[in-house]
Design brief:
Number of helices: 9
CATH class of the largest domain: Mainly Alpha
Distance between the termini: 31 Å
CATH architecture of the largest domain: Up-down Bundle
CATH superfamily of the largest domain: AhpD-like
Shape: elongated
Number of domains: 2
Strand content: under 5%
């Protein structure tokens, strides 16, 4: 449900039907974040391409790290929808249950390796106060072993989820009662 009209899958035509079919085949269903964009299929297509490029592309930043950043940023922005969906992705990727639970509550577990902990703290700060994440913070990440591609992909993940969180919050998108059915099997979705 959302606060604007959406086109359900059974009424979709043309480009939207094509997108819904592709999403349903890959994810097991059409999530509300996709339906809320149904009045603008071109934007939905671009959004999906950006999502795949940011979250699933091969990178020196692990897929788990990107999903953790998704949850951290979404929690900072108080976007329960994205916390739920990307917490589920972490569970499917077999991330530590205590880590997933903590991140969903805004807590970065202290038992994480120093580099992982620092990256997630940086993502929290970047979501809250991006102006406070200057060159010195990038140098700190580099000193902890993150190369420039990993840092770029971390920044893209923070920015992407900041965008999606706002879309969800501005349009009243609610977590589906059966949201697990639209999450697909994250272990089979790429690197």
């Amino acid at each position: 449900m959302s606060w604007i009209k959406t086109i359900p899958p059974e009424q979709a035509e043309g480009e939207l039907l094509e997108l819904y079919n592709a999403i349903g085949a890959a994810r097991g269903g059409i999530a509300e974040v996709h339906r809320v964009q149904s009045l603008n299929p071109r934007a939905l297509r671009a959004h999906l391409e950006l999502y795949k490029s940011v979250v699933f592309a091969r990178s020196t930043l692990s897929r788990v790290a990107r999903e953790r950043i998704a949850v951290v940023v979404s929690e900072v922005n108080r976007c329960a929808y994205c916390v739920a969906h990307h917490g589920e992705a972490l569970r499917q990727l077999r991330d530590d249950a205590a880590v997933v639970e903590g991140l969903g509550k805004g807590e970065i577990p202290k038992h994480l390796p120093v580099a992982d902990h620092a990256l997630l703290r940086w993502a929290q700060r970047a979501a809250r106060e991006p102006k406070d994440c200057g060159e010195a913070k990038v140098s700190e990440l580099r000193a902890l072993g993150y190369d420039d591609r990993a840092i770029l992909d971390a920044a893209l993940t923070v920015a992407y989820f900041s965008f999606v969180n706002r879309l969800v919050l501005l349009l009243g998108v609610e977590v589906e009662t059966d949201y697990h059915a639209t999450c697909g099997d994250e272990r089979d979705r790429g690197p």
